[in-house]
Amino acid sequence: MASPSSHRGQQHCCFNDWMNLQEHDLSELLQAQTVEENGGDKEVQLRRLVDKNVEHFQAYAQERTRLARDHVSPFFAPSWCSSLESSLLWLAGCRPSLFIRLIYALSGLEIESQIKEFLEGLRSSDLSDLSLSARQFSMVNELQGRTIKEEEKLSEEMACLQEKIADQPIAVIAKETTRVLGQSFETNEQADEALDDHSRSMVSILEAADKLRINTLKALVSILSPVQALDFLIAGKKLHICIHQWGNKRDQKHG
Amino acid sequence: MASPSSHRGQQHCCFNDWMNLQEHDLSELLQAQTVEENGGDKEVQLRRLVDKNVEHFQAYAQERTRLARDHVSPFFAPSWCSSLESSLLWLAGCRPSLFIRLIYALSGLEIESQIKEFLEGLRSSDLSDLSLSARQFSMVNELQGRTIKEEEKLSEEMACLQEKIADQPIAVIAKETTRVLGQSFETNEQADEALDDHSRSMVSILEAADKLRINTLKALVSILSPVQALDFLIAGKKLHICIHQWGNKRDQKHG
């Protein structure tokens, strides 16, 4: 099929391709999880699979940035997402600190299930492959601190950018714009230039946010063992796909 | 015309009604600005007009909250706004600090034009009705500090709410959800309950953000003289209507 010619169509297509790729990657990750084989070979294979998934995310972000240069604002309020999904966005994507929160949730779940098994006599006191070690906890904790600081910095930049709309030149151009009664306000060269300038700043902030998302993901999987990283990527993809599909159903229900 | 039966239709209608009311209010404000009459009577009339505009904003916020109780997430990513407008949203509306930034922009513009007129010999050194006094500047400045602090508090609450998606119970329900190959993930009772709970928190944050927007607006117009408040409301409404219409045109251009 030829790719759509409009910018909006290409953006929508880019997101759909990404969701389809995530579905495909999820199947592959789930399959890898069931392989019984142990030892060095499996470790290497899993690490390769994890790296491939991170690369896919990076390629998606690059393609998105390329398209954003033509028309950036839809990425901050995408019509192709369910409203639930869109309401959870931070700078056109998920909060990087969400990855870390997910690791903690998975870890808590693992400990809970191990305690249960231990109390039921099904397990010795050894920790499973999925439990984070004390050293890993401390590294994740340190990464969380750094990530939240970076998030706050970018949130502040976005606040400045949003506030600038009510300042020179845009607010003044709007104030001085006149129109024929009953007609809408036309953009003029001045307004277009100011909005183009604003768009360029939005692209920069999108790039910075994507960079933070990717770097946080990379740092996180490098702290985790391949088996843990696999479990984390599966949970992350399932969460994203579920929120996307649950959100669509809720939107449909409300017309 | 009968009001639409779907929640989405009612939400869209609520926004359209608000934009139409703003158009009507803008005309009335512009007309009031041209009235030559001076003195106490005009002051009282203008103050009444300003208060009416603030009440309209408050009524819109109340109606929105009522509709949000049925389905909240579309208000955070509204399909009825242009993508430019949506990309500028902070908690489903404009940042309250934007009102203050606009006051500063208008004040700067006024001073600039007075200096120009003074240098051209068209004006004595007296300040016009629209210039902020030193006392007003200090009050606006103090309001800005308070508003930004409140904004930061609400932004943090929103961040917590967004991060909680990757925690118990939602992330765990998603992780444990299975599906028939090729089908989408169905919501179950557990997921629905968790998402309903999340929605209730989103309604609370929407209400808190609207309260801050309204309180900031009220505090601001109470600092301004009726003539200044009129000028500010005109500039604010023109800015909103322009961004809405310019954004629609830019979306159309990009397909």
From TrEMBL, chains A, B:
InterPro entries: Seed_Dev/Stress_Resp_Reg (IPR051886), TGA_domain (IPR025422). Residues 8-253 form the DOG1 domain. PROSITE patterns: DOG1. It holds the Pfam family DOG1. This is DOG1 domain-containing protein. The lineage of its organism: Eukaryota, Viridiplantae, Streptophyta, Embryophyta, Tracheophyta.
